[in-house]
Amino acid sequence: MRIPFAQIDAFASAPFTGNPAAVMPLAAWPDDAVLQAIAAENNLAETAFLLPDTSGEAEFELRWFTPMTEAALCGHATLASGHFVLSGDPSIDTVRFRTRKAGVLEVRRADDGYELSLPAWAPFPRELPEIVAALGAKGVVETLWHPGRYALIVLENEALVRALAPDFRVLAAKGNILTIVTAPGDSTDIVSRAFAPGAGIDEDPVTGSAHAVSAPYWAKRLGRESFTAFQASQRGGRLTCRLEGDRVILGGTCVTVIEGVFFL
C-alpha cells in the first residue's frame, strides 16, 4: 500500500517553527492498530488521517493519533489538514472535517493564512495540587479543569511560564492529561505552554486544543472576545484567538516542509 504523506508545520510562519503534523489521506480506514503504528513510526506529536466523508456532514472524516494513543481533539493537525486540502484546490475556501469526539470542525482561508473553528471547552475552578507540584509552578493565580482531561494552570506572568521545568515522569503517571500553563504575555495578550507526557508528548510546540480550553477563560478575564497568543515552546508559535458563542476561532499560517509516500 502507498499512502501520500505530507509533514506540515502548523501555526508557523517559516519552516522549523510552529507544530509539525503528518497528514495522510486514505481511501478506507485500516485497523486502529495500523493507524497507531503509523503514528508511532512518524514520531510526531500528531498524525492526522483523513478520508472522504459519506455522511453529508463534511467533506472529510478526520482522526488524530499521537505516537501512543488516539486524540479526542487536535487543533494544529486539523489546521495542517485544512492547509493540505485547501492548498491542493485553490477553487475552494472552506473545508469541513467530521470527527469522532469533537463534532464537525472547519478550516477556512483568512488573509494569508487560515482560521480554524473549534468547540469552546470552558474549564471550571478545581484544585490541582499534584499537577502544580509536578510542574514546579510558582506564582499560581488559579487552577481549572475540563472533563476532557485538560488542566489549566494560570500563573502571574510570562517569565514564570517560561521558567517551568516540569517533572515529566510524575506528570505522565497522572495519565493522558493535557496540562496547559498560561499567563498574561509580554508581547502578546497571553502566553502558554502545554505538556502531555501521558500521551507521549513531553511538551507540545503549539496546541490548538489548549486554546479551545483557555480562550473562554481569557475572554472573560480580559473582557473581550479577541486576543493574541504565543506558545512559548522551543519552536514557538503565534496565533490569534476569538470567542464566538460556543466556538473558539484560531488564526494561523502553515508551511509544508515534506511531501512523499508512506509504504505499508
UniProtKB/TrEMBL annotation:
Keywords: Isomerase. The keyword DNA-binding does not apply. Transmembrane segments: none annotated. One of its GO terms (cellular component) is cytoplasm. Pfam families: PhzC-PhzF (PF02567). Coiled coil: none annotated. GO terms for molecular function: isomerase activity. This is Uncharacterized isomerase yddE, PhzC-PhzF family. It comes from hydrothermal vent metagenome.
